[in-house]
Structure formats: C-alpha cells, structure tokens
Amino acid sequence: MRRNLQGRVVLVTGASRGIGRRIAERLGAVGARVAVTSRTTDELDQLAADLRARGAEVAVFPADLTDPASRAKLVADVVAHFGGLDVLVNAAGVSSFGEFATSTPEILRQVTEINFFAAAEMIRLCQPHLSASYVRGPTSWRPAVLNLASLCGRVGIPSLPEHCGSKHALVGLTEALRAEFQRFHIDVLLVLPGVVRSDDLNRHLLRNEGKIYLNFAGAQRPEAVADAIIRSLQQNTTERAVGFVCFWVWLCKRLFPRVVRWGMHLKARRGARRAGET
C-alpha cells in the first residue's frame, strides 16, 4: 500500500524545532494539511509563517503534552479546525546523557513522561478521530500513527538509561497497538534514528554528563530523519532504522544479540576508563 498524504490532516508533536520542525516542512511540501504543536509559541508561529510562504496549509496549536487537559484541548481544537484527523506523528521527546547511578528520580520521570506517557495518551485521544478517517473502496485510505522512537528503543545503550527505558516502552506499546488497531483500520508505524544532530543540544538534553563517546557533531541530520519518516508514512513501512550505523546495529541486535551486548559492555568500560574509573 502507498499512502498519499496530499490533503490529509497530520498532527505533529514537538514541531517547534529539530526533527519535528523538519517533518512539518516535508509534510507541507507534499501537500498535507499540517497541525503543529509544542510549548514554544513563538517558534511555532515562525514555522507556520515559513510554511505558509511556501504555499502549505498549517495551523498552530500550542500545548503542554504532559498536561491531560492541554492534550485533550489540543486534539479537540485540531479536529474542530480541520474537520478531522488522518495521521498522528509523535515526535516530541527529550533525553538525558549520563549514568543511572548519578541521576535522579525526577529526571527519570520527566524523560518517561514526555517520551512515553505523552505519546501514549495522544494516541488514546486521537484513535477515535483516526478511525473515523478510514475510507473503503477504490480510493481507499488508511490512517496512521507514527511513533518516533530511537535505536535506544531496541538496544540498551550505556549513559542513556532513562532514554532507553522510555523508548523501549514506546516500542513495546507500538507493537501491541499495531495488532490492536487493525480492527480500527489504523496502521501503527515506528521509526528508529540513532544519534541526531540537535538545533540546541542543551535544550534537548536534561543533562550532558555521559561517560561513553557519542559524536553529537557528526550525528545524523534531522532532515535525513524527517525524510525517512515521510517515506515510512508513504510506503507504510512498519519499522525503519535510519542511517547506516543505526541500521547495522539494529540488524545485528536481531541476528547476533550477544555480540551487541558485548559491544555495549566494552563501550561502557572504555567510557569509565576515560573518566578515570576502573
């Protein structure tokens, strides 16, 4: 099946910057009607102005996805404005780079709240509207949820324990809902990028104290991840690992899990040595 996004209403969370912003730009370019949300109104307004200048239809809906009332108002406002909803892209996220032993319960809860609970509850709220957009017949259409997880959702990576925990939870939810939502005619898709270059690393990371080496400067461009997300929606790809390194780690975890575990243990030991620990 190939999904034509032209004229379809797509809600993108975390759209003010980074991958979310690039997703909104790509959706506008293929003719989707784009609803964008985040907590930063000024950046959303600038994004909307840029997209409208290129001829895209876009509407701004500022919201705090960690607040139940704000989530409910967001979905209701999007449906009221556009007359329905066809695709949900869960792109909002945050991370923490550092060891679990020196972290805090507050960081764990904040990462999990945004990366997992907010995404899960957005799916719950959007499901009836997505189901209503299903069309049978020669011009058939299937709505979709696309969850932007991470390689951390398939591989436990040291110095990223909270991020791994939240993304593993999102991957598990995605797989369960993929089966459940067939009766609603909703496809549930998953995209797994590796380390992604951030517009502002300090805003993306709750802390930056990890011992392992991560090449943030040479990381994947958010544009490449956004392109992969659009392809996944159009081609109805169940799961896509983005980038050469990410794909091979993802594949090796499936085929040779012990090798990947050994590699992560080695990575952690090297990080500890660099930090002057034994």
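Above is the first protein from milestone M3; the second protein from the same milestone is given next.
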Amino acid sequence: MTGDSYTWLYAVAPSGTDLAVLRGMSGVAGEHPRLITAADLAAVVGSVPSSDFDAPALHDHLQDPHWLEHAVRAHHQVIDALARGSRTLPLRFATLYRDDQRVSALLDEHHREFRTALDRVAGRTEWGVKAYLDSARLHDDNQGADGRDGTASTGRPGTAYLLRRRAARDRNAQALDDAVERARQVHHELTAVAEDSAEHPLQTPEATGIRDPMVLNGAYLVDHPRAEEFAQVVAGLQDAHRQVLRIELTGPWPPYSFVDLPLATGGK
C-alpha cells in the first residue's frame, strides 16, 4: 500500500463481495482485510509491515511453528468467512505483492483466468477424505493368527520365532496392499459423486500425528445440492471397508485444491 507495507493476498472474488462477513476479523499481521477492485473482480488483501514480511523476515517466521500456526489460521479464517458468502478463489499462503498497483495489474492481466476459475467453483465446496490402514484391527488379526500358521509345530523355539515374525511381516505387507487397493476403490466411487477430484501426497505419521499409514489423501469438489449425498456415500464406504480402513471426512472447505493459478502467486 505504501513503501512501509506490502500487500498480502487472501483471495479473489467478484467485485460486489461484502466485507461485512469479515467484521471484527484480523489478518495475518492483525490488519483489517480490505478490497482492491478492478472491473468485476476484487482482491481481498491486507497491508502488512514490510520490515516484518520482507524475504529474510518472512523466512525466519516460516521457521517458527508458533508464528506459522497463528498466521495460517488467520489466513484460512479470512478465506473461509468469504467463501461462506460468495464465490471465492483462495490464494496460497504468503502471496505477497509490493503494492496495491501490482495487485490491480494482476487482476487486469489475468482477468479471464480468474473469471473462469470463479465460474468453476460457483455453488461448490471442497470436501476432504483421508483413509488409513486400521493397524489396531491388523494387530488383532495378527495376534489371532499366531500359532495357526504352521510355525508352532517346529521343535526349535528360535526357528519358530523367526517363522512367526516372517509370517507377521507377510501379513502386514498383504494388509497394506489390500488397503491401498481399497483406497483406489474409495477414490473412484467418490470421484463419481464429485464435480472434480484431486489426490494430494500421502502424509507421514509425523505430519498427521497418527501412527497408522495413510493410503488416501483426497479432495473433492462437490455441488452444494449433492453434499448430503456425498456424505452418505462416505458413510457407506466407511462401513464397507471398516475391517481394513479408517476413513475420515472433513469439510466443507473453500476450494483450495481446485484453484490452479500459478501466475497469481509469488512475490512481485
């Protein structure tokens, strides 16, 4: 906005977007979100201090888990509030421009792409589905299988132990292969109900805080009238695969996974 501040982008929306939904809400730097309009588009932005958001400072912030958690939450809350009231294109976290003029130029230069993307997400929301191999059930099955796999008949305790360990590893590998195949089926069935779908990289236990291996990390763009149907399909899949998979449904979310505007991101 001035030489002392950068412009942080939250989202792009139609120019008639009412910021009343953001009343009392603060952005990543405690600022009040505002609009920059160009023709029939509006960028929802905030002015953040350049001394605190230039490249070195931002790099340091991104290494600080406490700051990052607070900022990501603030970024999402602005976008989520907007998306509940109108078509909204969420922009990536830490999309920064040096001033408002460059944001206005962005809206002008990529007007067609923004309009196409807004039309694509109109009347739709994103739902997330994650599936994990249910290790607790697998452990119970392995416990029940010990002694029934032919390894207990040997007269050598050490050999019997090694054979049981190998049999357990084989069962674990087979169970994981089965879980991956079932996850493929789940994704296929959910894709049939959604307008569009995307698969994100599987997350590690360190990232999720869940020890069970993840086998599906899907996002689904669903028409509002089909949201209940989508949830019912997920519930049916949870029941059908409960012996192997633990399936989690989250949402609705702004359409983060379905806004592909590389020219609209990155510092300028």
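Note on the second protein: The chain has a mean pLDDT of 87.
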